[in-house]
Amino acid sequence: MSEFDRLSSLRVELDDTTLDLQQATILGALARRRGRRTLPRRRLVAAIVTALLVLQTGVVWAAEDTLPGDALYGVKRAWEAPRSWFDHDVRVRNRLAEANALFEEDPVGAGTLLDEAANDVDDDTQPALVDELEGLRLQLRTRARDGSGSGSEQGGNGGGSGGGNGQGGGP
Amino acid sequence: MDGIRRRSDAAFAAVHRALASDLASFANGMLHDRHAAEDCVQQAFLDLARTAHRFRGDGRALIAWLYRTVRRRALDELRRRRRHPERSLGTTDPAGDDEYDSSVVEALGFLPPKDRELVVLRHVVGLRADEVASITGRSRGAVYAATERAEARLRGILEEMDT
Fold first, then answer.
1. Hey, which end of chain A has fewer CB within 10 Å, N or C?
2. According to the model, what pLDDT value does residue B22 have?
3. What is the pLDDT of residue B98?
4. Residue B3 buriedness (CB in 10 A; 0-12 / 13-18 / 19+)
5. Residues of A with CB below 8 A from B115's CB?
6. What is the dihedral of CA B46, B48, B54, B55, to 10 degrees?
7. Distance (Å, whole) CA B116 – CA B118
8. B56 pLDDT band (50/70/90 cuts)?
9. In this model, does residue A170 exceed pLDDT 80?
10. Which chain B residues contact residue A33 at CB under 8 A?
11. In this complex, do A9 and B125 lie within 8 Å of one another by their Cβ atoms?
């Protein structure tokens, strides 16, 4: 027997009681881990941020075509500031679209929106948008004038009819 | 291994039952303290329970991981004992000192931890050189050479104790 064989006296054989006690502790720890069912911290944070971004993107998308008075109109207006960092004319474009939508049913509201658009116009605004703005403001002024001066329009109409009759006679 | 990663009771119980005595023998060889050795084994499995979902590797890698974890726990205990010398190396088994051949066990206590673990893995736990290589992260050739040097040192210590 070599000197190293005598080292086998250090060998441990755990009895069933010790093994069962250890296993009970280990399985208890496993059960607590399974019961938590939590994600690792960084994955949890990433999941929450992603969910917020998706939720926010969905809400912003839903707010895209809203008009003053709609529930999500405030969201649309709030997103114009950050969007303007990479889309200079977003405010002017949105106000023009809203004014177009309200033109027939709420010309006063449309006029207010066009005034706001005019405030946002600067040297960098696309010329096409400036033209559209001026065109809509002109239409509103014409509509307002026509609506308040309706008698002159009717006189003109009557003259036209009379002339027709006159033309009916021969030389 | 999927059972381990899923923290399955059956998988953990099977691995524990298969390896606990060998792991405890290894820790006892390092600490000469059976109760502390059993604690190291239990702590190693609790560490596994905490990190099992991240474990990547096969069964051999798991065995190596468990031995390395027990070694780390045992070395921590040795360092703690050096800071508190009233708990020095020696047999504290309630079964009595005569359970060990005290001269060679005492000599083993004088080996540096790196040498001691090689001798314990080969002669207490009874692992092959390739298994020791897997646990220690060395090549089989390096394990052979290092183990021979450790055995030579142990013989030298025994001779000094006998004179």
1. C
2. 96
3. 46
4. middle
5. none
6. 180
7. 5
8. confident
9. no
10. 7, 49-50
11. no
Q: Cβ atoms within 10 A of the Cβ of A164, count? A: 9
Q: Would you say residue A149 has pLDDT above 60?
A: no
- In this complex, the residue of B34, B119, B122 whose CB is nearest that of residue A12 is B34
How distant, in Å, are the alpha carbons of A57, A108, B149, B154, B157 from that of A4?
A: 71, 103, 14, 9, 13
pLDDT for A84-118, tens place per residue? 777 889 899 999 999 999 888 888 889 989 988 98
Query: Which candidate, B64, B74, B58, B51, places its Cα nearest to that of B133?
Result: B64
Q: What is the pTM of this model?
A: 0.56
Cβ contacts of A3 on chain B, cutoff 8 Å? 104, 154-155, 158
Cross-chain residue pair B12–A10, CB shorter than 8 Å: no
A5 at B interface, C-beta within 8 A: yes
d(CA A127, CA A1): 102
Confidence of residue B127 (pLDDT cuts 50, 70, 90): very high
Q: Which of A142, A67, A138 is nearest to A106 (CA)?
A: A67
Residue where the block lists tokens 């002109």: A138
Per cent of chain A over pLDDT 70 is 73
**Among residues 105-134 of chain B, which lie with CB inside 8 Å of chain A?**
105, 108, 119-120, 122-125
Which residue of chain A is at minimal alpha-carbon distance from B91?
Answer: A10
Residue B44: C-alpha distances to residues B20, B62, B63 (Å): 10, 11, 11
- For residue A171, give the DSSP letter: -
